[in-house]
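re: ur question from yesterday

yeah so i grabbed the chain u mentioned. its 233 aa long if i counted rite. heres the sequnce exactly as i have it in my notes:
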Amino acid sequence: MRPHRSAALLVALASAAGAGCRHAAAPPAPLPADWRSLAHDPAPFAALYRLAVGGQRNLILTVRGGAGRLALTVAVPPGGAALAVWVAGDEGWVERVKERCREPLPRGTIPLPGDASLPLDAHLAALLLSGLVPAVAREAPGAPGWVAAGVGDLEWRARIEGTPAVCTRAAVMDASGRTVFEADLSSPVGSVPGGLVVAAGSQRAEMTLQEWHVAEPPGPPAWRSLPPCGVAP
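ran it thru and got these structure tokens back, copy pasting raw so excuse formatting
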């Protein structure tokens, strides 16, 4: 190759590289200055959602949470009960309506219709639905715009953006660093997300907020007094 052609080629390559740099994606935005306004325990609440999961749409999801407890019911309009769940601390139960009994839940699991489930306990679920992050959250190293917090054997991560600050994404990772749960949060009212798309493995659920208000912490549902399944009353 002739020298002047080599020089011309280098100039062309340099120009192309410079153009590529100019059009590179912008780096993630840093955390908003007020992100710690989201780092606290949620107030007790009651909420109503439209739920789509496992091919079923227009389900009615009612959630009450607070003080480490969570009461969840799913109904099929115009009023058929599909699921009832009670979680208090490490203990969780699901009502088996036809059998008139209650069945224990694996620790840190919240079931949904269609054999779907979320790897969350009552506290993490309340944080997610409130659009908040754990009080001990810190800036996530090497992940601009994200915060992280250890919660038992899990790590909770959240993407925080905007002014005022809101949580727009959340993820939960196990001890090996594998992501076991992800959520996209949208249409916030204050910090509370008006829409959530949650995924755990191949399972996916969409929730659209209909109503939210501060309430007293939930008490045990009446069916909590039913005998455990497989045990004679």
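noticed a couple things. Residues 182 and 199 are 5 Å apart (CA to CA). also The chain has one domain: 35-218.
anyway ttyl
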